[in-house]
Amino acid sequence: MAEKSAKWDLNVDGKFYVDDQCIACDACIMEAEDFFEMNDDDGHAFVKKQPSNDEELEMCNSALEACPVEAIGADG
């Protein structure tokens, strides 16, 4: 489970975030590319935009569920 205390500084403020357990697998980007981005320099994803409606929320929840290492949190 993702830890708020270990989330990347690149995450925009809001409900969703990516923490330091990310393995750069791209699963979140494949599920919700408008909301997640890869930091190629450091090798991890981060949240670049928070959802603002139910459809976007569903996309971000799909990304959270697709993460193989549970590096995405929804309690930010």
The description of the largest β-sheet is:
2 strands, antiparallel
Biggest sheet: strand arrangement:
1-4
- Poorly predicted runs are none
Mean pLDDT: 97
Helix tally equals 2
Measured distance between first and last alpha carbons: 13 Å
SSE string, helices as H and strands as E: EHEEHE
> What is the strand tally?
4
Shape: globular
| SS strand fraction | 15-25%
> What is the share of helical residues?
10-25%
Q: Write down the Rg.
A: 11 Å
Class computed from helices, strands and strand pairing:
alpha+beta
Highlighted features:
alpha+beta, two-stranded antiparallel sheet, 4 strands, 16% strand, globular, two-stranded antiparallel ribbon, 76 residues
What does this structure look like?
This protein is α+β, with helices and mostly antiparallel strands and 76 residues long. Helices cover 24% and strands 16% of the residues. The chain starts with 16 loop residues before the first strand and ends with a strand. The relative contact order is 0.32. The mean pLDDT is 97.
